[in-house]
């Protein structure tokens, strides 16, 4: 029996690569425009990052109104900061509501624009139940890249890490601190994930040490019951960025105190400017800072090298540890499969800065690369669907007019 086959398929509309929140948002908006589409997803479910690569205690860091996708708000009974399970439930209901049915387990190998035909060729591979392999080439006019900023884990190289005898895992494989009770755990990274994993370990009676190699902005999640993010959004409408940055640093100092003495040095660049230029998101504190101040979470400097039972830090101190959690982030994987270099740069992000990074040439689009979370993805999804929808409706109108004209000619010839 032949266990390998190749197929070709014409898509009467765009191909969307990725069935995370960004891809689903584009699909829903295209549905409203009456445009057919195909969503390709390498995993076996929607929002695989959320379903398979996040820790159990995760909640949305921003209020729900800033995280809902176009055309369908969160249920009213959801809390201000929905949990991981609630957000997944929302996404599943979102897909069902708009009748979005991605093609799962189809991993894109290459996507290339055929200048001769003026069409995109997207090649995928998938395994069959019988153990065979199917390769499909999708041919389309529009290609929407929705694989996002966090497609692949980042695992830095550390001297001696292979010699370390304890457990080593990336944050995407961490679920709970339940199995680390009484253990000394080194958390590498001090972003939102690193802070929250350290807090979770602490709450499960582990002994976390968090590596802080560079400066970091820590902001309170709320100020007097008001979301810090919402406060920034409102201030940005009336004040210049530099002034909002200065105000946020002052507010953080008043609410959180001087965090420098705990090993958390603030960058010279303000939190919003740093986010816009380097994509480094400020940490929204949900309790980790109190554990740092109490000494339950130890802040340590950068890593020099690992040994079989511990780690040597750049300041010369040695720590005995039982496990390592790499909260070292993620990256885009676009350069590994998209054969295009004008719109996307080598780091897998659109070259044009926000808000102009959603549309390229020859029907190429990007969603979920704004470094502005779900709100940025939703905004781009609306733009993309509107742009494709305008062309689709105009061409559909012309086809109907041409068809009507042919029909009239046929009738006139009969008489």
Automatic annotation (TrEMBL):
Pfam family, one: FMO-like
SUPFAM superfamilies according to UniProt: FAD/NAD(P)-binding domain (SSF51905)
Official protein name in the record: Flavin-containing monooxygenase
Keyword Nucleotide-binding: no
Molecular-function annotations in GO: flavin adenine dinucleotide binding; indole-3-pyruvate monooxygenase activity; N,N-dimethylaniline monooxygenase activity; NADP binding
Listed cofactors: FAD
InterPro entries in the record: Auxin_biosynth/cation_transpt (IPR050982), FAD/NAD-bd_sf (IPR036188), Flavin_mOase-like (IPR020946)
Assigned protein family: Belongs to the FMO family.
Enzyme class: oxidoreductase
Organism domain of life: Eukaryota
């Amino acid at each position: 029996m032949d266990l390998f086959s190749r197929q070709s398929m014409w898509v009467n509309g765009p191909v969307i690569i990725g069935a995370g929140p960004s891809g689903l948002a584009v699909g829903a908006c295209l549905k409203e425009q009456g445009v057919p589409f195909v969503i390709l997803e390498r995993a076996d479910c929607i929002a695989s990052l959320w379903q398979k690569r996040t820790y159990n205690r995760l909640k949305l860091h921003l209020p729900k109104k800033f995280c809902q996708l176009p055309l369908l708000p969160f249920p009213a009974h959801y809390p201000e900061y929905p949990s991981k399970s609630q957000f997944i439930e929302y996404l599943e209901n979102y897909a069902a509501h708009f009748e979005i049915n991605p093609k799962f387990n189809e991993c894109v190998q290459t996507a290339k624009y055929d200048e001769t035909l003026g069409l995109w060729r997207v090649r995928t591979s998938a395994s069959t139940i019988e153990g065979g392999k199917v390769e499909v080439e999708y041919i389309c006019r529009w290609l929407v890249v929705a694989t996002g900023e966090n497609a692949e884990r980042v695992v830095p190289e550390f001297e001696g890490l292979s010699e370390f005898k304890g457990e080593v895992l990336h944050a995407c494989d961490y679920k709970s601190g339940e199995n680390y009770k009484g253990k000394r755990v080194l958390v590498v990274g001090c972003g939102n994930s690193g802070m929250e994993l350290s807090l979770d370990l602490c709450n499960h009676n582990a002994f976390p040490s968090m590596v802080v190699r560079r400066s970091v902005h820590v902001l309170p999640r709320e100020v007097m019951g008001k979301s810090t993010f919402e406060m920034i959004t409102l201030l940005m409408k009336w004040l210049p960025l530099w002034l909002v940055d200065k105000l946020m640093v002052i507010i953080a100092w008043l609410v959180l105190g001087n965090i420098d003495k705990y090993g958390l040095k603030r960058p010279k660049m303000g939190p919003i400017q740093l986010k816009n230029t380097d994509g480094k998101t400020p940490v929204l504190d949900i309790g980790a800072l109190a554990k740092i101040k109490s000494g339950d979470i130890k802040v340590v400097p950068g890593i020099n090298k690992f040994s079989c039972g511990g780690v040597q830090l750049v300041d010369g101190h040695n720590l005995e540890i039982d496990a390592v959690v790499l909260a070292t982030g993620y990256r885009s994987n676009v350069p590994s499969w998209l054969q295009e270099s004008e719109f996307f740069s080598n780091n897998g992000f659109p070259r044009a800065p926000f808000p102009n990074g959603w549309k390229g040439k020859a029907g190429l689009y990007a969603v979920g690369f704004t470094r502005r979370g779900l709100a940025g993805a939703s905004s781009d999804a609306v733009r993309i669907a509107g742009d494709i929808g305008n062309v689709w409706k105009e061409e559909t109108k012309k086809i109907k007019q041409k068809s009507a004209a042919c029909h009239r000619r046929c009738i006139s010839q009969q008489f």
